[in-house]
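Q: what sequence does this backbone want?
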């Protein structure tokens, strides 16, 4: 991933963020898609901005809000972009600030680069195993400056689990209890969308378990960045890393954790 491409992506998410925040500040209509998930004009406008910005790079794009290629068309593609133009649309509708913009580069089924931008915080995390992970303000013109490199925190005395808003299912409660037998009482942070990966990448959260449906564009960017600092995102049954560009673009249930922590 070149610095030129990284700057192009940053410029795109800044532009998309500006338009998303204009809509966020006003009243807006909510539509329900065929899969029963909500969508707003912010999702659609952000998608158009991002797709237009990334298209000159020549890599096929899969965005949540655009018509998608069939699996037959894309199954052998060596590279694809995965875009979630507003991840956390339900949080956007609630106006609780817990939404973000996700961009991931997938190469031969693996997420190799990711970028997650928080419009309300004006912060971006990005990276991959090749370059490491960085956290920057929207205002910087020098995103790869060493001062922005993430200093991974790996010594939480009391382990922290981060989870989506809402209550724990019975299975998650059992998982937490098993962890507490090993690590003692866990602190719980609740947060919507892929913003959870800010905490995971910084090292201020140790575990994230997801036993509910997600799509590839929800998680791929976070996985790429998290792996760059020694984290892992694993299939809950096989404990193998998640892969992408699958037929239905759906993720299995998964667990994200620091690699050095055992279950």
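A:
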């Amino acid at each position: 991933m070149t610095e030129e491409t990284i700057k192009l992506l940053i410029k795109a998410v800044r532009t998309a963020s500006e338009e998303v925040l204009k809509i966020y500040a006003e009243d807006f209509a909510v539509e329900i898609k065929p899969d029963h998930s909500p969508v707003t004009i912010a999702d659609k406008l952000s998608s158009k901005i991002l797709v237009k910005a990334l298209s000159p790079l020549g890599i096929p794009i899969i965005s949540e809000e655009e018509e998608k290629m069939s699996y037959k068309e894309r199954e052998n593609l060596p590279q694809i972009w995965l875009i979630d133009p507003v991840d956390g649309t339900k949080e956007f509708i609630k106006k609780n600030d817990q939404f973000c913009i996700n961009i991931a580069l997938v190469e031969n089924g693996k997420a190799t680069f990711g970028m997650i931008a928080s419009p309300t915080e004006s912060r971006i995390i990005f990276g991959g195993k090749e370059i490491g992970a960085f956290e920057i303000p929207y205002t910087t013109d020098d995103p790869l400056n060493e001062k922005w490199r993430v200093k991974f925190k790996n010594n939480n005395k009391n382990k922290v689990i981060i989870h989506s808003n809402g209550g724990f299912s019975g299975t998650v409660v059992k998982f937490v209890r098993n962890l507490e037998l090993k690590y003692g009482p866990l602190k719980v942070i609740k947060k919507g969308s892929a913003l959870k990966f800010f905490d995971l990448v910084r090292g201020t959260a140790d575990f994230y378990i997801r036993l509910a449906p997600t799509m590839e564009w929800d998680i791929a960017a976070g996985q790429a960045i998290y792996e760059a600092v020694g984290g892992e995102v694993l299939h809950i049954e096989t404990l193998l890393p998640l892969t992408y560009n699958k037929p239905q673009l759906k993720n299995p249930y998964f667990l994200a954790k620091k690699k050095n922590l055992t279950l």
